Amino acid sequence: MERSRNSMRNIAFALGGQILNILMSFAMRTVFVNTLGEVYLGVNGLFTNILMVFSLADLGVGTAIIYAMYKPVAEHDTHKIQALMNMYGRAYRTIGMVIIGMGLAMTPFIRYLVKTDQDIPDLQVIFLLFVANTASTYFFAYKGTLITAHQKNYIVTNVVYSTSILCYGVQIVVMLLTHNYILTLSIQVGTNILQNIITMLIANKMYPYIKKRNNESLRRREKRGIYRNMGALVFYRTGQVIINGTDNIVISAMVGIVESGIYSNYLLLTTTIKNLLQQVFHAITASVGNLNVEESNETKYNVYNAIYFGNFWLFGFSTVCFWVLFNPFIELWIGSEWLLSLPVVFWIVLNFYMTGMRQVNITFRDTMGVFREGKYVPMMAAIINVVVSIWLAPTLGLEGVFIGTAVSTVSTLLWLEPLILHRYGFKRGCAEYFVKYAAYFLTTALSCWVTKLACDAVFPVNTILTFIGRLFFCLVIPNAIMLGIFWKTKDCHMLRNMVMGVLKRRSHRKKRRVTAS
């Protein structure tokens, strides 16, 4: 009961904050496009991806230690928690210094990655601000993970979104008044440091034992287990970063910085929605970790299937909306000169769907500790992604880069990740998983086809009113199709019961409080 209540509270705070954050980020991007232009937009996307590659220095430390924390948190073992936090703090301070070192080493060569005829003043200063923004996180933020491990991520979420919304507001004013990109970035760095310090102070107040001087350390056997998981997570991190972080680098170096800037608007939309939906999975991660510590394999598997169905519904519905609304929205938002062709949009949307459908497996993998068994899979995907993207980019341009990402996912992650999770986590076969995946994919494809056909027939021109009509069709048609096909299935029934159970308990508690007052 407590586990479900914490999950729902985390989800509510995460979604509410993310929606406000989305509105502010779009306002900020609109001002950015109109004041700084497509070249700086491309630089922003390129440097963001380079720093994503730098975050490889993490080496999976965070995931490995958070996984190790679920059991002592459930058992209230403060000595073990202190030992883990000591290890975590030392590791993250080292990582922060490594990122600073890599940034300084790369600064003299950064201009060679920017393919443009225009001169960009202070390019190296801009890059160093990106480095400072990323590195600062590692010196303060690690204590916030203890709040998350206690299933109270909504506290961290409040801090993150409050400071982010404040940052966007100040940045918008600064851009409108000064058109100065360096000053805009400096505000982001300062806000990030403030955000991490506030989170650290809250963690110190909630768990005062972590700020006391102590020499708690882990036993050699416990350290070995964490180091083994970290060794496996190095491969996961490397593969994930290469897959997610190199597209913009390849586009900038081989296609052009302007094209990178145009794509960055599509990336903003997919990343925004993906982050919004991932808040659901982040919010339930600690509860799933607690479930894996306390419940049987059968219970875990039933919950997994219910969440898998929810995963499909969220990302399937979002995929339909992207396919139907992507270009109409971009055109109304910033103009037709920022549009990509429909074939390019198809590959962007397909990659969004396939990445999104992995979320349930990633959540259970990280909370069950199934790291070592599949450690080479992300690296295989990364190599395929880079090779195919570089091979196709000169002839197909943007489309070739995104085909590379799709090929790498289909050939590895799409089927190997669930296979390994089922074999080593649930101790069972995964034929049922793939049958469901096929059903979910076909349902999403059918929904995309029917919804776009209906929208193009009824709304042939693109205006604000017809966009609202398209949005209404997107809300009704795919959800009607999904309800019609899956309403009576076991997984849908279980997910409904889980959600309704939590809502009923919340309603009863409110009634008791009203009666008591």
Automatic annotation (TrEMBL):
InterPro entries xrefs: Poly_Biosynth_Transport, Polysacc_synth
Source species of the chain: Guopingia tenuis
Main location: membrane
TM stretches of this protein: 12-34, 46-70, 91-113, 125-142, 154-176, 182-204, 225-243, 249-269, 306-326, 338-355, 376-394, 400-421, 433-452, 464-487
Coiled-coil features, chain-numbered ranges: none
Keywords: Cell membrane, Membrane, Transmembrane, Transmembrane helix
Phylogenetic placement of the source organism: Bacteria, Bacillati, Bacillota, Clostridia, Christensenellales
Protein name: Oligosaccharide flippase family protein
Topology with respect to the bilayer: Multi-pass membrane protein
Pfam families: Polysacc_synt (PF01943)
Location of this chain's protein in the cell: Cell membrane
Cell membrane found in the keyword field: yes
Gene Ontology annotations for the cellular component aspect, listed alphabetically: plasma membrane
Keyword Membrane: yes
